Amino acid sequence: MTVSLYVPLASPVHRAPAGLKLGLLAALAVALFVVDRPEVVGAALVVVVAVGLLVARLPARSLWAQVRPVWPWLVLLLLFHGVFTDWRTGAVTTLRLLALVVAAAVVTSSTRVTELVAVVEWLARPLAVFGVRPARVGLVIAMTLRFIPLIAERAHRIREAQAARGAARMRWGILVPLLIQVLRLATTLGEALDARGADAPVTPPRRRAGASTS
Amino acid sequence: MRWGRRAASDTPAAADVQRTAIELTGVSHEYGERPVLRDLTLTLAESRVGVVGANGSGKSTFARLLNGLVVPTAGTVRIDGLDTRSQLREVRRRVGFVFQDPDAQIVLPTVAEDAEFGLTNLGIPAEERARQVEEVLVRYGLAGHRDHPAHLLSGGQKQLLAIAGVLVMQPRRVVFDEPTTLLDLANVRRVARVIDELEQDVVVVTHHLDLLAGFDRVLVFEDGRVVADGAPAETVRWYTERMS
Amino acid sequence: MKSRDLAYIALFAAIIAVLGLLPAVYPLGSTVPITAQTLGVMLAGSVLGARRGALAVLTFLVVVAVGVPALSGGRGGLAVFAGPSAGYLYSWPIAAFVIGVLTQLTWRRFNLAWAMVANLVGGVAVIYAIGIPFVTVYTDASLTAAASSAVSFIPGDIVKAVVASVVAVAVAKAYPVIELPRRRPAAG
């Protein structure tokens, strides 16, 4: 569960800044919806796949793993338009989505989670107007990553405890005890965040008075 | 008073602080309608203070007073002259807090990231943070786990990481709230040794009475009051007899 | 927002992820899987309330977007946000918000009936009201075609709304988290 879809490799695509990659992805999305000529959209798909396989050198398997969930939709879409509209529209719509999904998969596979979180923090900066602290956005995401395995483990333990008392088929029965455990945990976690200075971080970064020199 | 080598060089202002003690004056605290602490007046100037008492006796709330996690409904708490109500930020920086359950205290995914968390909040520059994290991880035998996910650590290692994450912030005092309750015997001893070796002044709330052997003073809590207070040998004996 | 609220948000985002790990069930020989993930969305709204619930779901989606395969079936990454069914994902934070608002409105007399209203409106109606038109706009398909593709999921979603409501009422009794501004005690 801690695994991400990132594939560590040394390619120019991997080295490119995460913000640039996300920006290009957004630009591609806009551009593809403006164009409706199948040969242009098809060419975009070829380029995106080529970048993923040849420039980023990502294994086809890892890209396919991210495209696969969308696959049935694409087939349905092509058939739907082929039958009810026309095959040209079907081809454009399907190729467009496929190009976008592959491009998104290339970005995900070539960028570390921490880099993407940093971009999310950066994107959250304008939200400061509404009182959102960007650093807290990053903190909450990081905390979620930390607690997914912990909660999975606690859910498993509750299920074992219930099975031991003969409640093996209580599928939803773990929810109430799990939620109450988690809410209790949140209370202490909130205290721990305060105790470790998260409620009043020193901003903008400056040296602590008299901190040892280096 | 022992501030410890690193802590003493930490803030030049240390000399300006006249009183070096925990002072409670007329402290009462209620959760809703339920009183948990009743009119406590205490001065703790010792370096090693232990706190014992049954569950629900108020000792955990007492611990939370000491770094302002709980601000009392009545009375004042001063830490080295700083009021936890009006000088919360300074108090928090001065007093580190280690919780019973390290899983609730470790907030970031990997060992090194979590150890660094408090330093980031203090606004320490990156290269200095990296140096201090390295030092504290080596000290607690976690250097080999630097980039490991925190959830893969053993229970004892998790508690050591929780302690490391607090000590890296170089507090003057450390409060432990039942730090060994969830640990096996080997790790209880390990954490006891870690506490023993600390340069900082400590307050330890615990059910493990052995932890308090070398302490200067032990308080016994019952129903929100201190019912015994003295050297560990007598106080612990009194407490054990009362509980039996 | 207090530190405890951040803790609630992160922990509920993690719960939604963990519910995605539970294998899908096929009730009564149906061929349509029920995954527990939207159950998490409903619980976020009805346990944490509007603001924190919506932020928990949003956090979960960001975690998926940055490449954690936390969507049911081990899906994740930016690709899932580019597909035609992405509208359902985008509807989730709004669903949690609506559930939270309805829960807060009825909090003083919160019971199974009110919880059901909140979860059916927010957790079923809102999700389809956003998800179905999204498919239409995104794929140029007709609204009826998009709606008929969704119909088979509705029974499962109603089951989830019932489960979420039962759980939310039990949790509200044992460990209430939603705080309303205090009303003055009755004059005396």
What proportion strand of chain B?
25-35%
The beta-strand count of chain A equals: 0
**Largest sheet, strands/sense/barrel of chain A:** none
- The amount of beta strand of chain A, in percent, is under 5%
Described by its quaternary structure, the protein is heterotrimer
Q: Which two chains touch over the largest interface?
A: A-C, 69 and 60 residues
Low-pLDDT stretches of chain A: 204-214
Q: State the separation between the terminal residues of chain A, measured CA to CA.
A: 39 Å
CATH class category label of chain B: Alpha Beta
User: Ends of chain B: how far apart?
Assistant: 36 Å
How many strand elements of chain B? 10
- Indicate how many domains the architecture of chain B comprises: 1
String of helices and strands of chain A: HHHHHHHHH
Task: Give the rounded overall mean pLDDT of chain B.
Answer: 89
Determine the CATH topology of chain B.
Answer: Rossmann fold
Report the total helices of chain B: 9
Structural class of chain B: alpha/beta
Low-confidence stretches of chain B: 1-17
| Average pLDDT figure of chain A | 84
**What strand line-up does the widest sheet of chain B have?**
6-7-8-3-9-10
Computed CA radius of gyration of chain B, to the nearest angstrom:
18 Å
Q: What's the topology here?
A:
The complex is a heterotrimer of chains A (214), B (244) and C (188).
Chain A: H1 12-15, H2 18-34, H3 38-55, H4 60-67, H5 71-84, H6 87-110, H7 113-123, H8 134-164, H9 175-195
Helix pairs in contact in A: 2-6, 3-6, 4-6, 5-6, 7-8, 8-9
Chain B: H1 5-10, E1 22-31, E2 34-44, E3 48-53, H2 59-65, E4 74-79, E5 82-83, H3 88-94, E6 95-98, H4 102-105, H5 111-121, H6 126-139, H7 155-167, E7 173-177, H8 185-197, E8 201-205, E9 217-222, E10 225-230, H9 232-243
Parallel strand pairs in B: 3-8, 3-9, 6-7, 7-8
Antiparallel strand pairs in B: 1-2, 1-4, 4-5, 9-10
Helix pairs in contact in B: 5-6, 5-7, 7-8
Chain C: H1 3-19, H2 37-48, H3 50-65, H4 86-105, H5 112-139, H6 143-151, H7 154-174
Description:
The complex is a heterotrimer of chains A (214), B (244) and C (188). With 214 residues, chain A is mostly helical. Chain A has 9 helices and no strands. The model of chain A is unreliable at 204-214 (pLDDT under 50). Chain B has 244 residues and is an alpha/beta fold. Chain B has a single domain (8-243), classed as P-loop containing nucleotide triphosphate hydrolases (Rossmann fold, 3-Layer(aba) Sandwich). Chain B has helices at 5-10, 59-65, 88-94, 102-105, 111-121, 126-139, 155-167, 185-197, 232-243, and strands at 22-31, 34-44, 48-53, 74-79, 82-83, 95-98, 173-177, 201-205, 217-222, 225-230. Chain B is globular, with a radius of gyration of 18 Å. Chain C has 188 residues and is mostly helical. Chain C has a single domain, classed as Arp2/3 complex 21 kDa subunit ARPC3, CATH 1.10.1760.20. Chain C has 7 helices and no strands. Chain C has helices at 3-19, 37-48, 50-65, 86-105, 112-139, 143-151, 154-174. In chain C, helix 2 packs antiparallel against helix 3 and helix 5 (112-139) crosses helix 6 (143-151). Chain C is globular. Classes of the chains: A mainly alpha (214), B alpha/beta (244), C mainly alpha (188). Chains in contact: A-B, A-C. Chains A and C meet through helix 5, helix 6, helix 7, helix 8 and helix 9 of A and helix 1, helix 2, helix 3 and helix 7 of C.
